[in-house]
Amino acid sequence: MILRKELKQNAKKQLQNHWGLSIGAIIVCMLISLIPELLVYIDPESAAIAILITIISLVIAGPIAIGQCKFFINLSNRENPKISDLWFGFRNILRALGVTLLVGIAVFIGAIFLIIPGIIVSFMYSQVYYIMAEHPEMSVIECLKESSRIMKGHKMELFILELSFIGWIILTVITFGIAGLYVLPYYSATLSNYYLTIKD
User: Fold this and answer.
1) Which of 193, 174, 198, 172 is nearest to 30 (CA)?
2) Domain spans in the chain, listed from the N-terminal domain onward
């Protein structure tokens, strides 16, 4: 059994000398994610612009997620995380797009039947970006299979771990995102520690 308290304590220790860098990494990821939204100012009522925003957002979502995972894996392994880690996912953007699409389709299909299957599938494939960050040589299908393998018996455990941050999320909302400068690095570091704990 993986102790949530231990994961969180480890995350805090790893962040001690890297808070500024970690906050910067989160902000960079958020800013990159928001770039497509700027296109709406070209023509707010254009259907073509709306479609373009959706496509660009979909294309960059995977690489950003992989880069963020790479950064926090390095943080958790005490391997000198760098802002340049965030670009790691863009080295193979098609691979990142492929896994984003496949996971999205799998979750969507699961949700069609009932909400619960969709949630189960999302947790089953929750580790794919961490796996891609650590193993760029693995194919999309291999990453999906590996995520499914390491999450066997851990889905409820991860659900409860994420649920334990609900108070922090509420605080982030009521502070209009300001608390997120602390919460998001803490949350991300905790999840990277979780991945490193269960992967073997």
Assistant:
1) 172
2) 4-198
